[in-house]
Structure formats: C-alpha cells, structure tokens
Amino acid sequence: MDDTSTFKRPAKLWNRHFELLWLGQLVSQTGQRAFALAMLFFLKETTGSASLMGLMVMLSTLPGVLLGPLGGTFADNFSRKKIIVFGDLINGFFVLSLGLLMWFVFYARGQMACTYPPNDFTLFVFTRIEPYADAIMIGWLFIVAAAGAIIFAFFTPACTAAVPDIVPDNKLDAANSLNQFAIFISLFIGQGLGGLLYTITGASALFLINAFTYFFASGAESFIKIPQVIPEQHKQGSVAFKAFISDTREGLYYVWNRKGMRILFLVAALLYLFIAPMALLLPFYVEDYLKQDAAWYGYLLMSLGVGSVIGYVIAGSITTRGRTQSNLTIGSLLAAAISLGFIGIVQIPSVVLVVIFLVGLTAGVFMVKATTVLQLAASSEIRGRVFGLLGTLTSALAPLGMGIGGVIADLANKNIPLIYAVCGLMVLVLSIAMAFSREARDFLMLGAEK
C-alpha cells in the first residue's frame, strides 16, 4: 500500500480527501487556463507571429497526445498523491521562474512606469508593464508551456484514477459530475478573469499570480490520502524501462481485449472528433447563416456551457446501475447526435439557442456516465493506464477534427449547416451501433468488469 495502509474509505461524497482533490484541481486548472490565455496574447503583442502562436498551441497539446499512455502507467506504478502534489508544485516553480524573468527584464529596461487605470480616484492602482520580449524570454516561455503540458499528461490520469478510491461507489456519478463542473468553472474563470488581469497587470504579474495558484493547489492536495497498491520496484536501468513499456502495453491490451470497453472508448473519442468542427465553424455559422453578430456567438457558447453544466448535474444526481445505466448512457448519446444534426437543419437563432443547449446537456450526461462506467470497470491497479489512453485519444482526435473540419468547410464553400448535419449523422451512426452491440450494452449495464 501507499502511506495510507490504515485508510478507511469514506462513506460520504464530501469527505476531506475528495474536497481537497476537487479544490486543488479547480484552482490549478483555473491557473492553467489563465496561463494559456496570457501566453498567446503575450506572443501576439510581442512578436505578431501566427507561426509562433501555432507552435505554442502545438507544444501545449502534443505532450498529452504522445505521453497519455505513459502518464497512465506512471499513475499505476507510483504514488498518485505524489504525482498530483508534485505536479502542481513543479508547475508553480516553472511559471514563477517565467514571471520573475519577465519582471527583472522589464525592470532593467525601465518599463514599469505605466499604470492602470489612470484615474486618480480609483481604490487600487496596478503597474502594467508594456509588452516586450527577447529571445531568452520567448525561449523560456516555450519551455514552461511544454513542461506544463508534460506534467498534465501525468497529472490528469492520476487524478481521474484516484477518484473511485476516495468516494463511495454510489456517489461516483456525483463525483464525476462535480469534476466536470470544476473543469467548466476553471475555463470560465481562467479565461474571463485571466483576460481581465492580463489587461490590467500584463503578462509577468499574471504569471506570478498563476504560480501561486499552483502552490495553493499543491498545498491543499498534500493533505489528501489516496489508497493505492504500488508495485515493488526492484528493477533498474534498461530492465526497469522495458518493464515500464511492458506495463503500458498491458494497459493497451486490457482495453482492446474487452470489447465492451473498447467500443465505449472509441465512441467517446470519436464524439470529440465530430463535435470539434462545430466549435471551429461556429463563427461562420453565426454570421453567414444565422445573420447575427458576434454577440450571438457568445450567446450560443453560453447556452452550450449552461446545458453542459445541467447535464453534469442530472448525471450526478441520478445514481444508476444495470440496464437503466446502459439505457441512459446510450440514450443521451442518441439525443446528442439528433440535436447536433438538427443544428444543420434549422437556421432560426432562438431555436438554435435551444438546440445547442440540448447538445451540451445530453453530451454532458453521456461523458459523466461513460467516465463512471470506466472507473467502475477498471481495477485500481490498471485504472491510470485506462484513462491515460482515453486522454491520448481525445487529445488527438479533437484537434484533428478541427483541422479536417476547416479543410472540408473550404472545399464545401462554407456550407456549415451541411457539415453540422453530417457530423450529427456520424454520431448517430456511432450511437446506433453501440445500441445494437450486445457487448457494449452489457458493459454499460454491469459497470464492474474487473
């Protein structure tokens, strides 16, 4: 066991261990979203290079695609608590070093004279440093971004794998609902508040604030206890590396040899592939087909987000197992497919607002229920590898869907409704195939294939 051999599994959802893990994830992911926004705006202001911005996005995405399975193996072979705590701690030191580097460079150049806001009657006055960058600063920014992406490739499967061990089985749906809600809130706060702080303080101060969000999260997470059987590590050097690769391969075989799990994996990943073009092409859809301005783009995103949150709440409030669980999971995917395809048919803004709300709601229910089934189906010893692989598939297929969607949109002369209808049809085919698969239905119904 880990250092939790006397750990007694909590009987309620809101226990100290889950509360601290949830709070830590919320704070660290909020900081990560703010950092992602700030680094892109900083690059745009200082270099004006779309190529550098694209490279930065790639460095922030690619490690999750490549290292997901290895991160999952790491989470199964080493202390998940330590991965979580030290992941946030190391991220904090990286971002802190970047903020301090910028601060000292700006101070040396005498660029700390501009204040915001310029009103003498304001309660607070901030120093807003004018954007400037040299090769060292840009290079270190890329290193910090890549390091953060690598850390999250290990951090995320460790967190997901830990949840079933610190909450009761009958509260797992609610726990996953709350985790999805935390991701939504971190996106909303991180980008909204991050954009405001960037405008007021500039990049260096925002990075310093971001560093302390990681330190706070790491401190909170250090009080968690996560029960875990950790394999003894007797191997060294190349033998240990081969064993690590063998463990990773075992995770791939584990998923592939369970047909029901394999089908759910592919469906969940392909859902990202077919929904991604919707997000990419939404601005074109709003202006060219709905004949609305950018405000309606915000309304639709808000409707999608609110629908998702309500979907998380519904899925978390209803603890289902057996046939009911199977029907609800498949039914929510069917409803998401129909709603997505319906967007390509109607072009009345108020109706689209309702339909996109339904897309968020039904997709939210599906993702929470699918996550719960996978957590129950995979034993603790293999769970990290299962979710590491799932993270790799979703991280790879979402940007791929955006890329393919952009190319198809150009070839189809921006016929966005047709693309939406086709994407909805493809998700419908996936959901019908899963509904007719006995293995998939049985897997969703049991949810405890160990």
In short:
With 450 residues, this protein is mainly α. It is built from 14 helices and 2 strands, in the order H-H-H-E-E-H-H-H-H-H-H-H-H-H-H-H.
Count up the helices: 14
Q: In the residues, how many domains can be counted?
A: 2
Distance between the termini: 19 Å
What would you call the structural class? mainly alpha
Cα shape? globular
- Provide the β-strand percentage band: under 5%
CATH superfamily of the largest domain: MFS general substrate transporter like domains
The helix fraction, in percent, is over 70%
Largest sheet: 2 strands, antiparallel
Series of H and E elements: HHHEEHHHHHHHHHHH
CATH class of the largest domain: Mainly Alpha
Using only C-alpha atoms, the radius of gyration works out to 23 Å
Number of strands: 2
